[in-house]
């Protein structure tokens, strides 16, 4: 294979293909790669790979860089913290950025009298939310939803409502985790069906008095960008209240302005007991957290929460800068506006008869997705066409990801800071990719 625009540094040849060979030899295959690219440089919506090719990045590290790659304000805050100190372990010696971040997060979540605790990854936040809920209620049970994604750790991959690829072959899952149906009316599950499914679990699997928490993504992320309808969220709140169950909103993917609100839970007009946050919180610096009612968090004994790196000072500094950027650049409003613009354009593409059949087009702010289906006007999933569209887009310089319980969804995760001409460029590429896949 040719080396393309490869270059030599020291005695190493740097190109996508040469790096891929080294990756295959040195790195576990259990980590799947959505693209064969090795990134050398990244700026806001753009990245450049080891072959020198430019791409528009509409994956943004899986919904992490809502402020784009290398936002100058976030980078400056992180650098300043690095130059000062980068780690003490909050449990050993504390530092102000952790406190300031907790104060700011407590003030913007839809939870009254909130407290926060920080970790490093989304899965860790979800694990801890369950631990807190079990401790606070003295109950073992956890109910999550089919199609949900909560992580890859032993507990969170059990909570994830899809076996392959996340848990396939990994043996028995964690105990006392049950999956309820998630309402997706165009796939035949109404809100009433989903509520009935939950009551069935109470009858056949676990009594409500043994359930510690119901954990829900207000917009399913990996599951396909399906928003839980407001009436469903309110019904869950009522069921939780009736049985002393804690309601946990997993905002790991939907949080921090991605959906046109600071948190997707804001659409539901409910107050969760706990929320998990991560990803866009740190704009790429690993940080996550559990935010919840003080009366619940204080049930955990000192020493029960934490972790060596939880709330690392560099990540706290980056998170504080991220919150400032969201406010200064009005990214909540921009997410709502650009999301509506994208939906309009995608619906126009859907109407063309020279593209692959597109089913449901949906979005909550800039959490935008569409389904690829077998026949125009229908909803029968066509998972086989999805990799072809994704590959055709990549060839033309656009990075996009697939997702979905039915594996037929393409999701678009543009940075909320994307320049509008680059947004148009990306949608043009997508349109051409959908045409190319139809012609093949
Ligand atoms: C809703 C949700 N929860 C939890 C996680 C797990 O986060 P992490 O990959 O940081 O462990 C993810 C990751 O995609 C997610 O989307």
Automatic annotation (TrEMBL):
<dbReference type="GO" id="GO:0009448">
    <property type="term" value="P:gamma-aminobutyric acid metabolic process"/>
</dbReference>
<keyword id="KW-0808">Transferase</keyword>
<dbReference type="InterPro" id="IPR050103">
    <property type="entry name" value="Class-III_PLP-dep_AT"/>
</dbReference>
<dbReference type="GO" id="GO:0034386">
    <property type="term" value="F:4-aminobutyrate:2-oxoglutarate transaminase activity"/>
</dbReference>
<dbReference type="Pfam" id="PF00202">
    <property type="entry name" value="Aminotran_3"/>
</dbReference>
<dbReference type="InterPro" id="IPR015422">
    <property type="entry name" value="PyrdxlP-dep_Trfase_small"/>
</dbReference>
<dbReference type="GO" id="GO:0042802">
    <property type="term" value="F:identical protein binding"/>
</dbReference>
<dbReference type="InterPro" id="IPR049704">
    <property type="entry name" value="Aminotrans_3_PPA_site"/>
</dbReference>
<dbReference type="InterPro" id="IPR005814">
    <property type="entry name" value="Aminotrans_3"/>
</dbReference>
<keyword id="KW-0663">Pyridoxal phosphate</keyword>
<comment type="similarity">
    <text>Belongs to the class-III pyridoxal-phosphate-dependent aminotransferase family.</text>
</comment>
<dbReference type="InterPro" id="IPR015424">
    <property type="entry name" value="PyrdxlP-dep_Trfase"/>
</dbReference>
<dbReference type="InterPro" id="IPR015421">
    <property type="entry name" value="PyrdxlP-dep_Trfase_major"/>
</dbReference>
<protein>
    <submittedName>
        <fullName>4-aminobutyrate transaminase</fullName>
    </submittedName>
</protein>
<keyword id="KW-0032">Aminotransferase</keyword>
<dbReference type="InterPro" id="IPR004632">
    <property type="entry name" value="4NH2But_aminotransferase_bac"/>
</dbReference>
<dbReference type="GO" id="GO:0030170">
    <property type="term" value="F:pyridoxal phosphate binding"/>
</dbReference>
